[in-house]
Amino acid sequence: MGRVITIANQKGGVGKTTTAVSLAAGCALGGIKTLLVDLDPQCNATGAIGNAPVERHPLVDSRPIREAVAKTDIENLELLPGSQSFRDVDALATQADNESRLVADHLAASLSVYDLVLVDCPPSLGGLTRTALATSDEVVMPIQCEYFAMEGLTQMIEIIRQVMTTDNARLEFGGILLTMYEPELELTREIDREVRDFFGDVVFSTVVPRDVALAEAPSHGQPIMNYAPRSQGARAYIELCQEVLDRV
After folding, report:
1. Prediction pTM value
2. What is the distance between the alpha carbons of residues 28 and 247, in angstroms, rounded to a whole number?
3. Distance from C-alpha of 146 to C-alpha of 171, rounded to nearest angstrom
4. Distance between terminal CA atoms of the chain?
5. Fewer Cβ atoms within 10 Å of its own Cβ: the N or the C terminal residue of the chain?
6. DSSP 83
7. Which whole-number Å values give the CA distances from 189 to 115, 226, 240, 247, in the listed order?
8. Domain 3-246's class?
């Protein structure tokens, strides 16, 4: 089985879904057989590549997961679509530990045909995020360059440590990604220094700039590489794809 990477942060609006979609699309365009898993009840990752949510989430449906995987317009990229069903969201989010482990095993058993799997989580520290982490090899955390970034980072790291201890000993910290980066702002430069001083090489060299094209692309059902391939955002995520692939 290839690498399984969860994109997670309990804060919303930090570029989590944009990162999951852009990494998935960029790696697929580079010839890597990729699966994007949408675990967020908002289903933003599903819509961002031009697909529609499903009535029942594949992880609680009785069908084999391979039957629920959807094709996309991007070669080498497939999607396990999200569901907005309150019943399914509640079922996934309130599982006991043993049920969460079963769901994780069910998902993992279907991933062997892919070189890379990227999982988009909801902005929370709840059951859906823990299920994703229990299935993954790595976790990537996008953080916005703002005042509360470090506080949120500390909370997320504690959850990751708990999962490493109780659910998934192979889980590693894949990296921290600075998003909505505005180098002309002193606050951005200060957060950059603090995060790199504390976490060192865990922080990706690539930073994702604040770019209106990144905000526009999902409304067109396209990843940034297709919507605005010459934009700053597209260039940043292409560089991030290479950096992620180099971290093997």
Report:
1. 0.91
2. 17
3. 27
4. 14
5. C
6. B
7. 35, 30, 19, 25
8. alpha beta
What confidence tier does 19 reach under pLDDT thresholds 50, 70, 90? very high
pLDDT above 70 for 244: yes
CA-to-CA distance for 186 and 123, rounded, in angstroms?
A: 27
Write down how long the chain is: 248
CB 42 within 8 A of CB 89: no
Query: What percentage of the chain carries pLDDT values higher than 90?
Result: 57
- DSSP-based three-state secondary structure for 62: coil
Question: Domain-by-domain residue ranges, the chain?
Answer: 3-246
Q: DSSP readout, 95-114?
A: --HHHHHHHHHHHHTT-TT-
Alpha carbon distance 46, 17 (integer Å) = 10
Count CB-CB contacts under 10 A for residue 155: 13
Asked if 195 and 149 touch (Cβ cutoff 8 Å), the reply is: yes
pLDDT the model gives residue 103? 59
What token pair was written down for 20? 């999951």
Give the separation between CA 36 and CA 132, rounded to whole angstroms: 12
Residues 6 or more apart whose CB falls under 8 angstroms from that of 226 comprise: 25, 74, 217
Tell whether the model's pLDDT for residue 121 goes beyond 60.
Answer: yes
Task: Kindly state the tokens that stand for 156.
Answer: 């997320």
Give the highest mean pLDDT range of 30-44, 50-64, 81-95, 134-148.
Answer: 30-44
The share of the chain scoring above pLDDT 70, in percent, equals 88
Q: Is 67 exposed, middle or buried (0-12, 13-18, 19+ CB in 10 A)?
A: exposed
